[in-house]
Amino acid sequence: MFVVAALLVLLRGQGVSVGDMAIVASSVTALGTLAQLVVWGSGVAQIAQFVGDLDAPLVPSSAEAPRSTSPTRIEAVEVESATFTYRGRTAPAVDHASGRFAGTGMIVLTGPNGAGKSTLAKLVAGALQPDAGTVRWRRGDGSCGEPHWQEVSVLHQDEALLPLPVRDFVRMGVEASDPEILAALRRTGLGALIDTVPDLLDRRVGESYTQGAAFSGGQFQRLCLARLLLQDRPMWVLDEPTSAIDVAGDADFVALLRETGADRFVVVITHKDLGVEDGDEVWRVEDGRPERLLPPVGAAAPGA
Ligand SMILES: Nc1ncnc2c1ncn2[C@@H]1O[C@H](COP(=O)(O)OP(=O)(O)OP(=O)(O)O)[C@@H](O)[C@H]1O
Ligand SMILES: [Mg+2]
């Protein structure tokens, strides 16, 4: 396990992209360390992909527990003057950010490119630690502590099309039977695809499932959401989850997100208008600092 992680760090140091590293990892998987790597893939690879520059802890102290490690709901994330500067940069990506994120619906982060949305989400998720300031998770049982990224599932805008069968791609380190995987896929709106491609679980992600037809971008994002459903972790971070989904599909996807994310702390980074509802919080991030747009400052926050 450690050797594989070290190999991937080495490759990353050589400028190999995270997507290519994932392919290396899955190739090694095929050589006989399937179980270990799939578990590894559910933690380190996912967070590495999220972090991008691998600044986050690389090797988890424990590689197990891919499903929710704590049933205790995360009620709020309290950020206090958090600052983070990427290695090699002088300007902070997140600069004295403060806020209590506590929506009972979705936490929506919006704002211009480079404003610090993804970095702030990484701090909220515990994938990065602030250089200064604090990030604390407040739980339903009243406790308050450090973020615990093993409890976070991420749907990244640039999810790698791993050369794995759909079955392994979706369950990624989670014990799940075919009926469970198919049920998750149906919940994400891929029922029609399952009905037309009976051996869908055996088809490789990124390769054609019928002659000349591959997963569309929107179908792929739904596939990734099915993985989050199976992982069943208390926090979801979705970075532009509907970027490849059409307008009609948008509403379905958000409805699905509301339904499936109802018991979780859900952070959505988006440039789209996803249809804000009661309980949602919308934050605009600019120059590395979040400002709450909805509910308007002065009105009580939904989770306060
Ligand atoms: N891995 C990295 N290494 C160095 N600098 C980075 C890294 N990731 C982001 N940055 C820088 O940090 C700042 C904030 O980036 P971030 O990705 O958080 O912005 P964003 O709001 O998510 O942008 P976008 O809408 O384009 O996704 C930018 O100046 C960016 O160049
Ligand atoms: Mg971003």
Automatic annotation (TrEMBL):
Keywords recorded for this protein, A-Z: ATP-binding, Nucleotide-binding
Record carries keyword Nucleotide-binding: yes
UniProt cross-references to InterPro entries, sorted A to Z: AAA+_ATPase, ABC_transporter-like_ATP-bd, ABC_transporter-like_CS, P-loop_NTPase, Type_1_exporter
Gene Ontology molecular-function annotations: ATP binding
Family matches, as PROSITE patterns: ABC_TRANSPORTER_1, ABC_TRANSPORTER_2
Domain ABC transporter positions: 77-304
Entry coiled-coil feature ranges: none
Domain of life: Bacteria
Protein name as annotated: ATP-binding cassette domain-containing protein
Protein species of origin: Brachybacterium huguangmaarense
